[in-house]
Amino acid sequence: MASTSTSSLMTSKTVVSLFLSSPRTVKNSFLSFTPASPSFKPLRTRSSNATKTDEVTNNILDEDMDQIRRLQNGSDVRGVALEGEKGRTVTLTPAAVEAIAESFGEWVAATESNGNGVIKVSLGRDPRVSGGKLSTAVFAGLARAGCLAFDMGLATTPACFMSTLLPPFEYDASIMMTASHLPYTRNGLKFFTKRGGLTSPEVEKICDLAARKYANRQTKVSTLIRTRPEQVDFMSAYSKHLREIIKERINHPEHYDTPLKGFQIVVNAGNGSGGFFTWDVLDKLGADTFGSLYLNPDGMFPNHIPNPEDKTAMSRTRAAVLENSADLGVVFDTDVDRSGVVDNKGNPINGDKLIALMSAIVLKEHPGSTIVTDARTSMGLTRFITERGGRHCLYRVGYRNVIDKGVELNKDGIETHLMMETSGHGAVKENYFLDDGAYMVVKIIIEMVRMRLAGSKEGIGSLIEDLEEPLESAELRMNILSEPRDAKAKGIEAIETFRQYIEEGKLEGWELDSCGECWVSEGCLVDSNDHPSAIDAHMYRAKVMDKKSGEEYGWVHMRQSIHNPNIALNMQSVLPGGCLSMTSLFRDRFLEASGIARFLDISDIDNYIGSQS
Asked: pTM for the full model?
């Protein structure tokens, strides 16, 4: 009997292996698999033990494939790359990374090839300590796919995309290895072609293909590189590109090549990849950068999280600006696709304030432009934009969603020059719709110098002095109490029930918000044009009306996280006690009344109500 079981196990693995490793045929849409030969047939056995063994083997393969699929994080890949996080095991292994890189290379060859021969792919990375061994895995995977790899070394996410466009590099595709502001134990991959960053559905296809590869060969993966990638210094070319933009647009009448002479700008790189902006951009343009913080890359991030939303990052930058009487402070996240600033008076400018600042600058250059943001921005920001002649489009959370919406609006004939998320991700039409934290700072610096040349003694913060801020705001989380594989379905159920309750009038005074001018309806989620974008995560924004006046006093935004098995609840109010009132109504008349609370951990909501009562 034991002999029969062992034989059956080998038979099952052989069948799976033959299916998964069969020759690939490139089709116009993607890659498909064909059997090894027309005569291929699974071997049969009558053993009941064999059937059980087949089930075990299939379960193992399913789990291996799920492990790769769970690494997808919207349009990125992210996972735990090092031991050190309590309760978390390493998921982003060299074997997983190699399979994903190989699959990306094959995807590029199948969808982006221009018929000019070998596909060329660049790789950049932030300073995380896991970057070295995972880079080797990327190069091995690209080699398996027949791609020619180029090693950019320490780089930024925007630079990786620009390496597909700037001559003489002009690679077919690029990968950035980073986990943004997450802890040093994490790492991830971002993907680019000449069209821009990949979408969530595209990354899902790549992860599906990688899952098959990983499940089939995880114990025999080789990360040996037969041909070492060519090392290239792209960051110098990218820095020069930024310097030329600043010089040309300021066009200083006295010192064209050093237009930042007389300005002191403090940069906080947070030990990430952003130090280059100090010595390779600002210093060479004549700026005084004395007082800058944490410029040297250190993958352990010993001083604070490199994140413009981090309070420590902003407070230390503020202190450096005030101590040195600087004109501007700059905060970058790890891979420099996000940024925040501090004005000369020490006022932090991030979130809605940064969107307002960029809106003020863009609307000067492009009057009447539409500004796309995620739907967590304030009512005051909408007024700020409209009072300057702009139009505000509220859209889905997720920087890729916000940017892609701007691209679509332009295609539909609606001039849209700025797309920003409250997290600090921002893109402008003039810069290939690329979310580039350094480019955002470049535009702010240009405006600052222009103001000085025009005779103004005010700092950059004066542009947003009339921005109204909400009186109250809150962000709460509800963990989904289910098996990991069921969490997404449960989250959708909760959020769609929320929509249903509002549409049926069960939450009095609550209405699904909309943005009709930009063809967005149903709580700022659904495109109402003739080519709606696929929904990657469910979410709705409801505006809440005051019973007496009938006017809107706040909003509630409920969304499914694409990162973790939980639901986020954001809200703002212009009335005192408004957030408490909305939270209590949300719990009592929706969560409890609908029964949704049975599979959600609502302790965060209970604690908030208790603390505010």
From this structure: 0.86
